[in-house]
Amino acid sequence: MSGSTIGEIKNILELFLLANGIRPEFYEGGYSLFFENLVFDDGSLKAFAPDFIYIHTSQRNIKLWPEAEDDAAACEEKLNAEFARFEQAVKAALGFGCPVVINNFDLPLYRVMGNREGVDVHGRVRFVRKLNEKLAALAEATPNLYINDLAYLQALYGMDRFSDPTAWYAYKYAVSLECLPYLCQSVANIIKSLLGKNKKALALDLDNTLWGGIIGDDGAEGIVMGNETPAGMAYAEFQGYLKALGKLGILLNVCSKNEESIARTGFDRADSVLKADDFLCFKANWDPKHLNIAAMAGEINILPESFVFLDDNPAEREIVRRELPMVTVPELSCPEEYIAAIDRAGYFEVTTLSADDKKRAEMYKQNAQRAQLEQSFGNYDDYLKSLDMVCEIGAFDAPHAERITQLINKTNQFNLTTRRYTAAEVESLLDNDEYITQYGRLVDKFGDNGLVTAMIGHKQGDVLEMDLWIMSCRTFKRRLEHAMFDELVRRAAAAGVRTIVGHYYPTAKNLLVKDFYATIGFVKTAEDEAGNCTFEFTGFEGYQPQCGVMEIKRV
After folding, report:
1. Which pTM value belongs to this model?
2. What is the CATH number of the domain that holds 281?
């Protein structure tokens, strides 16, 4: 939706989306008619059925500015009136049932009062900052609303670069043509994050990447880190940035050509921000790094394309690019620029942050403990029973809606239909008698795995058609899918269902579940040339539960 000229924005945004594996179709609103197109839609936008709405506005769209003759009350009245106009447009956009992205406001290019613009109630700078704070509060309180931080982009790239008066007067571009790619990349980062296309893990070299020097030659005391030297400060800040990513649920892993016993001593230093237990996998050996990354992906049970590989050595970067082209390998220059190389790319853009996200690294470490325990059992069922698993299963509800939405849009491997749902669509299923919904949360003696599985079935008479069935890769091979199906059969039978219809739509990532329905008692009834399959289950009479290795807690 347009607050200014958007033709080139559409073209550049398409390139960034395609680079993230997203093939878009666009509906372009009329020039500077974002409010009218959203609030008074003539039916064309509704017919288009958008998956996302982007409202491209800027400070050029502010109509009511404070004037010198206004008293404080008049200034506040203008602020509230201006915010109400944008809020009305946002709420109209949310009515289309999809995520909405809106810019916050860039600062005016000129200051009539100079520095006082930022403190005086009549100052446009202060007015914009207040407006941005109101918009941020609205986004914080409103599901499905996301802010594209235009104010940050303007500060990052510089006001004189970001705003081009000639481009505005001649072509009505609120952002300079030079900076349009940065704007479009930022919007694309939000969209790809909402579609579950973020990176999940970092594979990190050590020598001259996390510290200066070669630990095998210089020893732990000889490597450069900490705040005593300029170079050491750069490495310390970089480690701090990585540690912060880890706290958000990004999986940190070591991938270094070193002796492991020696490499670990670097993290024993008091001035090392990162410690050895911050890492999920610690691959310090002399194997090719692409083999170590592939091994880590297998151990963690995520796809190699979920990794970003960081190494100061251009030869190592090139080998990984060649051998594992699906792994992202950014260019690195000097240590002072390492943070920018990751941060500017938006590999780990956060659109929602759940409690499960913050515990993700710990959950994967618990999985490693489970794998170690498994080795001591000769019988797999005995191992599963020894975990003392408790599965909480319930219908979708408001407290879990955000996490369910996030899981739906991030899960690719155990995902039978790869359908995606917005927050609004998930909320529409709460207490909806036409659907049978279930989420599953798994706890065992090693810890809480969190909410890791969900299913959605559409009830039509005595037929239940499965629209969605997903499960996190963290809980593969734990019989959780069988527990979920046992409960589904019980609830479906109670609702008068006699047939459950399941679909499998193949992708490059979900081949794991190609035959899943057949393994739990479904019969394949159709398959087309593309491999899309339909299965049916009618075995309600005399059904015997299939799980048998965990306690079920119904909520």
Report:
1. 0.83
2. 3.40.50.1000
